[in-house]
Design a protein that fits this description.
Blueprint: E1 18-22, H1 32-57, H2 66-89, E2 91-96, E3 99-106, E4 110-117, E5 125-127, E6 133-143, E7 146-154, H3 160-174
Antiparallel strand pairs: 1-2, 2-3, 3-4, 5-6, 6-7
Helix pairs in contact: 1-2
Transmembrane segments: 33-54, 60-87
Protein name: Aspartate carbamoyltransferase catalytic subunit
Keywords: Membrane, Transmembrane, Transmembrane helix
Length: 175
């Protein structure tokens, strides 16, 4: 039986083999949704700034209550523009002959490792962008009005076609 690579003891199943490891491109990827969110954050913080100026002219320290709203607006803008790149910068991918792993090591939050089995029934979606992504799972996030689906997979890979072919080979063997 082959020895598991360093750091994988107790994670891989017996005889499970690592086929590929990589990381997503961590560059900025700003789309229409990011721009709309950033515009909203700009208006939110701009209104808070306007309110603080007006409250400051009245005298006293009441204007400081607007600082939290101003900060939230700036946070919305920064997260919309840089948030996904920041997450990708702290993400690692591994593909074995049975599963796909997504590992993150975020400041404050810490380390997380999620595994997704690759079977003959796994729906693989190849997103052929400038830097392609491979989607193979979904998570459900609760919202105020129910839930929303979040795609999970290997995002923005320079070698996505090779990885996708390896995943298809796993599916054929699981057949």
């Amino acid at each position: 039986m082959a020895q598991a690579p360093d750091g994988w003891d107790g994670i891989l199943d017996p005889n499970e083999t690592i086929l590929w490891q990589g990381r997503p491109d961590a560059g900025l990827n700003i789309g229409p949704a990011n721009i709309l969110t950033a515009v909203f954050g700009t208006f939110f913080s701009g209104f808070a700034l306007f309110w603080m100026i007006m409250a400051m002219q009245a005298g006293g320290a009441f204007w400081m209550f607007g600082l939290i709203h101003f900060s939230v607006g700036i946070g919305i803008v920064v997260t919309a523009l840089f948030g996904t790149a920041f997450v990708r910068r702290h993400t690692w991918y591994t593909l074995t002959d049975r599963r796909a792993f997504i590992a993150t090591n975020m400041p404050v939050i810490g380390r997380k490792l999620k595994s997704y089995p690759i079977t003959g029934d796994t729906v693989l979606e190849f997103d052929d962008a400038d830097l392609p992504s491979i989607w193979f799972a979904q998570d459900y996030r609760r919202t105020k009005r129910g839930h929303r689906t979040v795609k999970r997979g290997f995002e923005r890979l320079p070698d996505a076609r090779t990885v996708y072919q390896s995943m298809r080979d796993i599916q054929r063997k699981a057949g």
